[in-house]
Structures are given as structure tokens and as C-alpha cells.
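Lab notebook, entry 233. We have the chain sequence and a SMILES string for fe (ii) ion, and the next step in the workflow is to get a structural model of the bound complex before anyone spends time on docking refinements. Request logged below.

Task: model protein plus fe (ii) ion, output C-alpha cells.
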Amino acid sequence: MEDEGIEPDVVLLTGDLANEGDEPSYRDLVAALEASPATARASLVYVPGNHDRRGPFRSVLLGEPPDEGPINQVAWHGGLRVVALDSTVPGEDHGRLDAETLDFLSDALAEPAPEGSLVVMHHPPRPSPIAMMAALRLANADDLARAIEGTDVRAVLCGHYHHAGASHLGPVPVWTGPATSFVADAASAKEFRLLPGGAITRVDVDDDALVTSVIPVGPGRLGVGAGGPAPTR
Ligand SMILES: [Fe+2]
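Result returned:
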């Protein structure tokens, strides 16, 4: 990636980090992030998606033994807490927070953080207007809603749909970020139609507000995103 003046404190990689979930792809990802002035100095939070595989993901990206359990993490930036959850179901493309992950979330949120919490996961809890993607959403959104009710969670940040979108779980905003590899056309409900290009989300957080802004990427811009078409979800 080329430096375009973006200097994030934290980079949240919300899943499907390698299409085949293999170790060489993860090593390529690490090399690209380390080579980029925009990400080399940032704290990185790797979150798995349905294309990722827990064993290689753990061993390459987290430096951990290749255990097959859910990859749940807590990261801090100052007083802001990031709770990164594994919403994947091995061998499936839809999402679900299993009992271990829901317990992890409740434990992580037991005490309020000085600047609140962000929950990050791959699968959005609310449907996409694209039927195929809607079927692959988080299957147990109600469990997530119950787990964050009355806590300090300021937003839920997701990926997966390949198009940007905003929703909410009760009073908590839900942001679905776009993808770097291609754009899914939200104008088409029945057909999964791919458009060239890609984007990332800039998230600005201060005491009063959290603001999301979509930044296009692709050839000639940050150097990521081949312009699709590519993987199917
Ligand atoms: Fe996905």
C-alpha cells in the first residue's frame, strides 16, 4: 500500500483475510501490512471470516499454536476496548456466536471501559438487501443483542457483505464495512452482482461520537483491491 496520509492507530481487519485460509496467503498479508506506511505503525486486530481457517490463522497471524477453537480477543487503545469475536462456523458460510464466544463477550464487558467498547466480528447481525448475503448473516443476532444490552458497547463493526451499510441492535449502531476485493451491488436483491473496486472504512472515535467514512481503494489508490470479480462471499 502507498501512504496516502492515513495513519490509523488501530487497524481492524474484519475477516476473510485469505480466500483459501492458507498459511502462504496469511504470510503475504503480514508482509503487505508491514510494508505499508499506513499500517506498519498501527495496532492490528485480525478477525476471522468464513474463508479463513482457524489453525493457519492462529499460527501465522497470532503466533499461537494452531488450535481449532473460536478466535476471540480483547485489544485496547487507551481507554477504548475492542472486543473481537469469532462469528465463523467451520465449514459453513453463515455466522453464529457459539456459547464459548458469548461467554467470552459477557466476561469482556463485565466492567465498563473508560472510553467504552467496540465489538468487531465478520458476520453482520442484520440482513443485507442482497438475498444471498442476507442468508449468510449472523444467525443468532438476538443472542448478541442480549449480550450487549446495558453494557458500554458503542458500536458493532462487521464485514462480509462486500457493501457498506448501517443498522442497529437496539440502541447500538451496527456498521457493515465494504471490502477491498470487489463491491457487491446492493441495488440487486435477487442476483449476487459484482462491481469492480473496493473500499475500507475510516472510523473516527472521540468522547462524543463515532463516525464512519468509506474510503475507496484499488489500483492507484492504496494499492489494494484488484477490482474483482473474485470470491463469492
Ligand atoms: Fe465473508
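Notes for the group: The domain at 10-217 is CATH 3.60.21.10 (Purple Acid Phosphatase; chain A, domain 2). Worth checking against the assay data. The first helix runs from residue 23 to 35.
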